[in-house]
Amino acid sequence: MVKRPVPNEFIIERDEKKCIACQACVRACSYDVHTYDPETDTVESDDSKCVGCHFCEALCPTKALRTVRNPSAYKENANWTAEVINDIVKQAEQGGVILTGMGCDKGQRNYFDHMVLNASQVTNPSIDALREPMELRTYIGTKPDCIEIDYNENGPVLKTKIPPQLELQTPILFSAMSYGSISLNASIALARASAEIGTFWNTGEGGLHKALYKYGKNTIAQVASGRFGVHAEYLKSAAAIEIKIGQGAKPGIGGHLPGEKVSAEISETRMIPEGTDALSPAPHHDIYSIEDLRQLIYALKEATEYEKPVGVKIAAVHNVAPIASGIVRAGADFVAIDGLRGGTGASPKIIRDNVGIPIELATAVVDQRLREEGIRHKASLIVGGGFRNGADVTKAIILGADAVYIATAALVAMGCTLCQKCYQGKCNWGIATQDPYLTKRLNPDIGARRLVNMLRGWSFEIKEMMGGMGINAIESLRGNRENLRGIGLMEGELKMLGIKPAGEAW
Amino acid sequence: MVMKKRKIVINEDVCMGCRLCEVHCLVKHSKSKKIIKAFKGEYPRALPMILVEEKGHLSFALQCRHCEDAPCLSSCITGALYRDPNSGAILYDEKKCVGCWMCIMVCPFGVIKRGSEKKIVSKCDLCLDENVPVCVKNCPNEALICVEEKL
After folding, report:
1. Are the CB atoms for A490 and A111 separated by under 8 Å?
2. What is residue B20's predicted lDDT score, i.e. its pLDDT?
């Protein structure tokens, strides 16, 4: 048969009247879309290479460029969409697994968009959030069963020993992105922003680069199945430790950092030979039960002298509630759950788009289950996977989360346009790449500033929404499901979420 | 008037070599000051007074350093190059220039360039009429930084 190419996804429209042939786009594109012809003094674009990252548009000084969707269309078909057809064409050509980056984009119901918040009217006063004190501070870690207080002449003294806690000035943390999957400059930006805001960033499974040890107080160190970069100093330098069992974008799948990304510095950080593939197995080969998990949790607690919270991160899957219960009973100080829309640097598309459950449902059922079992206080709940704004955060906290992990939003703040080509390692924005030509495009000063701005904006918005509900502390909002109502949801979904339909009074 | 000494410094760790500083410098020193006209409608085309140097993945923008001990000043036979007493910058008076190019010969940084005619024109003037030099203002990655010290 005639070889059939996959149609271009995008077309570059160049306004020749505006193009001054300065070649900023030529130098900008790591995919070599643009080329300069000195004979005609013009720049041409090869649309077939364009990934739609908009970096050239951002640089073009005359705004002569536009990246538009290719209008070339197949006969409209609800089942056999262009994506389905093109994937088959690619596989017929190459016979491999189709890779992708970022979170699931298939548009399974986003429950956040089907839930609305409450506000106070007449019978209870709302609070002017920007003028009155509002408390967003929260603590991650095991809380004691009860508190004993000694009253003496100096006032009350806490007798109970409180287990180690992470203090968050806003209930938002940066979730795990390894050095390797993202550039060092991106990690530096995340770490600096965490230190400035008073929250935490997560090393992912890539270890901690020596330049980042100084941010240890704001670092959550991850221990994943590959155990890359895990050593005593790494564990001790961090504020908390997270055992990674699974990831929302690829539940049940391991990780694979291709050898070409394993530079000298990554090799040193991950403690693997330079240029070798970094393979994270799908399971931890020493964890096949809750009891095994307990051993690792306590090994890590022992290694850090019981001074740091140790948590466990899992992907939101069908059995998430009983698994979370087991994790709490295994001694975890926090449980992190990553939902269906959680992002990744590389995942088989078929897994990303079809495995796991939305984080809204997972949050609600885990919180409910832990409450029913009387162990909710034993561990904090951090949820992540596609949180887009302050409203999503607020709704998740109402559904029972203590705090929220964000990563995609953080990358967007640093330039990411979700072109989903992270796995190619050619990120024009300098985020998902180790190419020295590209990594320097992310100035960590700008990155940190923008992350701080975003978190500040979200925090203001959360305060405003809380004020409207007449609540002045984030801790009073947690699990406060009367403040949430469902719209257009079926009875079973409402039951899972533990909320009433919109219109029903308290 | 507060006298300030303006310096343009480069953070080469984040210079991506896009050369937008060159583009905007050219526009600033064109007749029309309009980007499209400066490139497509002015002959001869203006020249940028900043130059991006590249080797491998290292790149940085370079322009006149306005040296304290400036060889170009002592080599200029007509006084076309002079130090501005207010800013300490080394400026260029085209009317006085005879085009002997001694300044080009002696500049240790190679940042003085021949113009399209015989005289020199390509010489950073620190955009003293702007709040911030255009190269700094338009650097997309804040690799160029403007530092001002009180004299």
Report:
1. no
2. 97
